[in-house]
Specification:
With 416 residues, the chain is of the alpha+beta class. Strands 1, 2, 3, 4, 5, 6 and 7 form a seven-stranded antiparallel beta sheet that branches. The radius of gyration is 38 Å and the shape is globular.
């Protein structure tokens, strides 16, 4: 069968490998945007052992493209029935377009021709992990460019020793990534420059998370809307700054992971799968840690907005300020989550206009008043009925006594 290409997925992305023309045709037919996988790098990285070197040459001879798997793109490739491989977390399929058939079909006969070689599959999986992290790094760069203060300005404005150390390590990592792009690998000398980077970055991340937790705590115990409005306005820009610091930390941690995978590919390719999975687990742990702190902050912000909305009539100018600032923070955190790949729901509160709130209270008052009038009317009717009844009883009693007196007066003359 002509036009054979191979699909490899690690859950985050899809590698499409084959003849360059066939790969482009497949991607175009499925409407999948892609980036270069960098498969040619494996030829220089797989430098030891004839079989391993051959695996790298075979991959590099083909065109490799990488597709970020979103919900939409994952559904598009689902129809090709990717099967689990012996490499943990990696699935694959071989497809082709025979003759005049328009649709790409799964092929059984050649499914193992490329993927049965463990070194090949491990190499591709390693490249896919790197490409996925580089995609996140690019998205974080875009995120930092959209906020009011650039991360460099935020960082350089800080006097903290922890942040100062990270700024220095930031420059070293950028230099190392530049050398990697030029050379195609990470040498011992290059790697020695960044070996201590993970500790420095972790310290900065922990520091930034503590700052966010402290900002969330400041929102607690503020029963007065005036105090709450002041606090929320102070918190809003600080949250944006510390999110920028966290984003930069995560970006640098992904850069270190990319460099680590190069080192393992170069020195111990047989350990690539274990190291790739270890990096993935550590990355998810960082995401979970960040998510817990930011979700807590959003919960405090939403509570502040709810409290402000509940008292909008009493504080028609300050309540909307609280809600607006809270929504800005929650929206910012949600955007931050999206760039890092954290799934979260955003619950935004909308400030109610004073007139709308007043109308609502007016309606309630009228409803309550109507109930009151109805109750008063009911009570009045009951009182009137009781009064009429009493009046009737009194009138009957008077009439009866009058009749008795007339009867007595009529009997007295007869007796005389």
């Amino acid at each position: 069968m002509d036009n054979e290409i191979q699909l490899i997925s690690d859950g985050d992305g899809l590698a499409v490998i084959g003849n360059a023309t066939d790969v482009e045709r497949f991607l175009a037919s499925e409407g999948l945007p892609s980036k270069d996988l960098g498969a040619q790098r494996l030829k220089s990285i797989f430098g030891t052992g004839a079989a391993v070197a051959q695996a790298g040459s075979d991959i590099a001879a083909n065109s490799g493209r990488w597709v970020k798997l979103t919900k939409e793109s994952a559904e598009r490739v689902k129809k090709f029935g990717l099967m689990e491989s012996k490499t943990p977390g990696v699935s694959h399929a071989m497809i082709g377009k025979p003759g005049s058939i328009k649709n790409w079909l799964q092929i059984e006969k050649g499914a193992g021709s490329f993927l049965t070689n463990p070194a090949r599959l491990a190499g591709v999986a390693g490249l896919m992990a790197q490409r996925s992290m580089q995609q996140t790094m690019d998205e974080i760069t875009d995120y930092l460019a959209t906020i009011d203060e650039k991360v460099d300005d935020v960082l350089r404005a800080q006097k903290d020793a922890v942040l100062s150390r990270m700024i220095g390590m930031d420059l070293v990592i950028e230099e190392t990534m530049t050398i990697r792009e030029q050379v195609g690998r990470v040498s011992d000398v290059t790697w020695s420059k960044v070996q201590t980077a993970p500790t420095t970055i972790a310290e900065t991340q922990a520091y930034a998370l503590r700052q966010l937790n402290a900002l969330a705590e400041k929102l607690e115990g503020k029963p007065k809307i005036g105090d709450l409005a002041t606090t929320v306005k102070e918190v809003e820009p600080k949250v944006r700054e510390w999110l920028a610091v966290l984003a930069r930390c995560f970006q640098l941690q992904d850069a270190i992971a990319v460099l680590e995978l190069d080192r393992v590919l170069d020195a111990n390719p047989d350990q690539l799968d274990q190291h790739r999975l270890g990096l993935r687990a550590a990355r998810q742990n960082r995401l979970n840690l960040i998510s817990r702190s930011t979700e807590r902050l959003m919960a405090r912000m939403n509570s502040a907005a709810d409290a402000a909305n509940a008292k909008v009539l009493l504080h028609p100018t300050k309540s909307p300020v609280v809600v607006q600032s809270s929504n800005h923070v929650v929206t910012g955190v949600h955007d931050f989550h999206a760039r890092l790949g954290i799934e979260s729901g955003r619950q935004s509160s909308e400030a109610r206009r004073w007139v709308e709130a007043a109308a609502e209270v007016k309606d309630k008052a009228l409803e309550t008043g109507a109930k009151g009038v109805s109750s008063a009317r009911s009570l009045g009717n009951e009182t009137l009925d009781r009064a009429s009844s009493v009046k009737g009883k009194i009138s009957s009693g008077i009439a009866e006594r009058a009749r008795r007196r007339r009867g007595e007066e009529q009997r007295r003359p007869e007796e005389g």
